[in-house]
Amino acid sequence: MKKTIAAIGAAMAMATAVPAQAEIINYDAADTHFTNGCSHGLYTGGSCERRYSFQDGTVFSIDTETGTATLTGTALNSLGQMATLDLTFSGFLDSLDGTGFDYKQNGGGPYDPANQDYWTSGMGTITIGGRTYSINPNDPFPGDTVLQFGDGANALNDAFGGSAWLNMLNPYGYSVGIWDINFNLTPITSVPAPAGMLLFGLGLFGAAQIRRRKKLAA
After folding, report:
1. Residue 113 phi, psi dihedral angles, 5° rounding
2. Considering the entire predicted model, what is its pTM?
3. Where is 215: in which H helix or E strand?
4. C-alpha of 24 from chain center
């Protein structure tokens, strides 16, 4: 995403007269992982009953003005039980070099700050069966990891997406261990190709505005 895509996005904006300074960039979030026939984007433990598949309407959004991101929507397990996600991420970084934060690769793409962005803090809830679990505000991501976003950042393939390990607390404030979110991302647009591809480029350009604002503030 950085300078190359920003330049492409700027050129597209000029060519199409579409404003490039969009403040909210939205992506459809979809599952990236199948284990023993269990498709899931939310992992809460071992068996299929604890793996939840993202449903239509689950959205990852970037606010380029505040430098924050959200993941909101629902996920369904093999028993038909629904999980409702309402997560917010902050502490934007365009590189992890020298910050003390770690990148998790697993089966995804390598660390690539030229095409990835990162958030170092998280908050919010995941509600399952009437019980609301919260991200641990004192240690949202285990092992000094982050929420990853970009090419290969879902940690399960080299597609465009995102991922994070989450330290979760039960409704009484006790740890329930590490949960996992992994998702492929598709820009939300109702415009057919090739016009849709123009909006895709503009969306990536919009995400790059976070970096510009951070640099200006510094």
Report:
1. -65, -15
2. 0.80
3. helix 195-217
4. 14
